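Open question from group meeting: does this chain pack into something compact, or does most of it stay loose? Before anyone orders reagents, we agreed to write out a predicted structure and look at it together. Recording both the input and the output here so the notebook holds the full record.
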Amino acid sequence: PSAVVDPRVDEDARRRRESARRRAPQMQQPVRRKPKVAQKATLKLNSKGLTTAGKVAGALGVGVDVVRRALAALGSEQRRRDADLDGDTAELAAMEIGRTLEVVRAVKAARVVKDSIEETDAKEALLRAETLEREASDAFEKAAAPYPSGDDWSSLPLRPPTVAVLGHVDHGKTTLLDALRGTQTSEAGGITQSLSAFTVGNSTFLDTPGHAAFSAMRQASTHAVDCGVVVVAADDGVMPQTQEAVKQCRDAQASIIICVTKCDVCEVKEDDLRLELLDKCGLATEHDGGDAPLVKVSAKTNDLDELRTTLELVAEVSDLRADPSARARGAVLDVSSDAKTGLTIDGVVRWGTLRKGDVIVCGDWHGKVRSVVADPLGAQGTEAGPGAPVRFSAALSCEGGGPLEGQFVVVEDAATARSVAALRGRALAARRSAAEARSVADRVAVAVDDDEEENVVLRPPVVLKVATDAEAKACEAALQALPSGRAVADVIKCDVGAVTPSDVELASTFDAPIFAFNVGASGSVREACRRRDVAYTRHDIVYSLVDDVASYLSSKLPPDRISKDVARAEVLQLFQLSNGSTVIGCRIIEGNFPASAGVRVARSGEVVATDARGVSSLRRVKDTVAEVPKGLECGVGLHSAEVSGMVQEGDVLEAFVVEERPADLGNVT
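Structure tokens returned:
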């Protein structure tokens, strides 16, 4: 008998079958996914507007080799991972890969004050420094002998004028002074490198150096100058130090005389010179309605009468007077130091009379005069009167570590001197604190771009020894003027006097050379240098010193590698060898093709590939040769199989060699 099926079960089965039939078409259809939309990649350039192949690859999400192949296809030589690329090249490489790259140029952040506390501290420190400086200046003037006025002034005797001879290097300043004095000066290197004062007739003359490095010396002369004779060579015209001389005379409120030298060498174009003075210096001569006389001289033929007459007229109009019985006031020109005599100061007395035993103040220095030479070129004396050049030794103490420069005055007693110098010392300390506070405020206030790449500058240490304070400033200024893109001399000690054993010890500790200018070293010190392996050189010309320091700095840098093209060869035919390598058949069309050269492949004037390792084999017929001259044919094998595979007939192989040269201090790579 047939089985009886429960109608409810049959109905469930039917429903399952119907549901399966309805689902079947959907299950057979593939799943449709939304297509991915390629997002635009963004790359930020550094502050120089550059990036690298590695950064481009990271932004695009591809391997760096993909980017390098794209750069090769574009003909770019910058295909190393760390090679610099500009923004346009990065965008083109992305397009070559089939991607879109948005390049963002870095914009240097504007100067903004992030924290006003540092700025406030800097302003308060500056205000304190200025207040103390005013108090120190007032105390200095109060301690010095006062100047009379009115009828008292006109009753005083005349004093000799102080005349500074200024101008550009090699314009004939020293030759002019020799002609006035009837002497003949011999100088190292043929240039003046020191500041000297001497008396000629009724005037005191200052001979100043003209080299750019001695700007501090020329500035020191303006503390004592009444009249500036600005020397201009007839064959050279107005030069940079001429402009500086005019400015310094104006700052010192001194009369100006334009003295045209070398008139016996060439014709003086006076109209052109006056226009040049007016244009470059803003100085109008008497001919143009100004106050500056223009005189023409020839030191060789001793044609100096016009200059002498003009100096006498200027001195008469200036009405220079002084009280010889008053306490002295003067100006410091230069300072030297000696183990036996101590500090020796060259200067000019401007007021009163300087005597042995006087108590003086100069800046934050104070002490007693031990001896006086009335003229630096004359004999020992006991006093120096108004307008006289003077050299004196003194036992001085320093209250604040400041420089011994500027004006000096004789005060009543040692207590007054100490008080005035101490106040000046506090003012100097406050000025240094203000400078430090300003530096901190500036560092906080300036927002620095995180991607900005700073060049690492080497600072090799050096020890500098000189004869005088003025030479120390001049030498430091000359070293600071050297190109500083890659290396800067770190002067760990700049001192006056001969080289000592302690200098050798310091140089040995810091592995620094010793450069001496116009000073020497004893035999025992030179032996210590040899024993401690310390380089010691002595110079008497500033050019020589600067060149020697520059060579030392250059030696501390890796040599510059310079690529030099040596030959060109036209590709005639390509030969495939059984080992899979390629031999390039060429004809040399320029230069001698060496076997040790690197090779660039040029096509239609553009470089398409470079093999820095270059030639692996160079054959002439069947012989391996070291060089193939112009006009001959040869076979060239390259180290890079990739570059060999890119060479086509008609291409040009450019052979180059890399030469090493001493590093250029200013060339930042």
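Observations to bring back to the group:
Confidence is low (pLDDT under 50) at residues 25-38, 109-115, 447-453.
The radius of gyration is 40 Å.
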